[in-house]
Recover the amino acids of this structure.
C-alpha cells in the first residue's frame, strides 16, 4: 500500500502489505489489542494534561482528544461483545516503548518529542485503519473507516500543538522521531499487534 | 447545613457551615483546585479501567464516567478563562491521600475499597457543590448546581458497581471508609481545598 498523502510529511514509510494480510486474518486479536491502544492513548493524553497543566490551551484540546479515545475504547469493547470476542490479556508491542526511549528527558525538548510522537502514532493508526478497512467486511470495515478520520484529526492536532510552540524546531524533530518510528515498523516482530513491525511467519 | 437525603447512607457527617463560608469567600482558589480534582477523578477512573480490564461492564461504565470528569475539567478551565482567574499550582488536600491509606492492598478487597472511596468522594463533592451553589451567584451558582447532579449520578454508579460485585460486604466496608472520610472532613486544615477539612482561621 502507498502512504496516504496527509502523512507524507509525517511518516517516512508505508506499512508493508504483509502486515495488513496477517492483521486481516488475525482481526480478533487485533481488536483486543486495539482496546488496549485506545486506553493507552487516553492515558498518554491525561499524562500530558497533568504535566503541562499551566498550558491551558494544550490541556483543553488534549482533554477533548482523551475523551474521544475513551469513546473509541467503549466502541471497541461493544464490538468485541457483539462479535463474541472474549477479553484476554495481551503483551504490548515494542512500538510504544521504542518511541518512548527516543524522547528527551529534559524540557522543553521533552514536550516537543511527546507531541511529535503523538502525531506519529495517530498517523500510523490512521494509515492502518484505512488499510484494514479495505480488507475487512462490516461491521469492522465501517468502524475502522470512521476511526481513521478521527486519527487523522488527532494527527493534525498534535502537529498544530507542536508547530505553535516550537516553530523553529518541530519539523527537524519530527523527522528524527519519524525515522525511529520507521525502524520500529520495519523490524521483525514475533507477535502481531496494532503497532507491531513485520510479522515473522 | 444538613446532609442531603441521598447521602444519608453514605456520608456520616455533613460539611460544617464554616467550610462553606470560607469556600464561598475564596471561590477563586477553589475553582483552581476544582480543575485539579476533575483531572484526578478522570485519572482514578482510568486507573480502574487498566487494573480491572477483564471486567468489561465496569470498564464501560467507568470510561463514560471518566469522559464526564474530563468534560467538567474543560468547563472549569473555560470558567477560569471567562472570570480571569489565572492558573496556579496548588498542593493537594490531605483528603485523597488519607482515603488511599485506608484502601486494602490485596484483591478483591482493594476493588471494593476503591469503589467505596469513589462513592464517598462523589457524594462529598455533590454535597459541597449544592452548598456552594446556594451561597454564590451566577455563573458559579448554575455551574455548581449542574455539577451536583452529575456527582450524585457518579455516587450512585460507584455504589451499584460495589453492590453488584460484593453483595455481602459492601455496606460494612462503606461504613468503615465513611468513618475515615468523616474524620478527614472534620479535622483542621491549614489550606482551603475542595476536599479540605475544617478551615483554621
Amino acid at each position: 500500500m502507498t502512504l496516504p498523502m496527509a502523512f507524507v510529511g509525517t511518516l517516512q514509510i508505508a506499512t508493508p502489505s504483509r502486515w495488513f494480510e496477517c492483521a486481516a486474518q488475525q482481526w480478533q486479536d487485533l481488536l483486543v489489542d486495539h482496546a488496549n491502544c485506545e486506553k493507552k492513548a487516553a492515558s498518554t493524553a491525561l499524562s500530558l494534561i497533568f504535566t503541562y497543566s499551566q498550558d491551558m490551551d494544550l490541556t483543553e484540546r488534549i482533554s477533548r482528544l482523551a475523551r474521544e479515545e475513551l469513546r473509541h475504547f467503549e466502541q471497541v469493547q461493544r464490538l468485541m461483545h457483539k462479535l463474541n470476542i472474549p477479553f484476554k490479556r495481551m503483551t504490548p508491542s515494542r512500538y510504544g516503548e521504542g518511541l518512548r526511549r527516543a524522547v528527551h528527558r529534559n524540557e522543553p525538548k521533552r514536550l516537543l518529542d511527546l507531541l511529535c510522537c503523538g502525531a506519529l502514532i495517530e498517523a500510523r493508526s490512521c494509515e492502518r485503519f484505512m488499510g484494514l478497512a479495505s480488507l475487512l467486511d462490516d461491521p469492522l470495515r465501517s468502524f475502522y473507516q470512521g476511526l481513521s478520520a478521527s486519527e487523522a484529526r488527532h494527527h493534525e492536532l498534535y502537529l498544530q500543538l507542536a508547530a505553535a510552540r516550537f516553530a523553529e524546531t518541530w519539523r527537524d524533530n519530527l523527522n528524527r522521531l519519524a525515522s525511529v518510528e520507521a525502524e520500529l515498523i520495519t523490524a521483525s516482530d514475533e507477535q502481531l499487534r496494532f503497532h507491531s513491525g513485520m510479522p515473522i511467519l
Remarks:
- Chain A has one domain: 17-199.
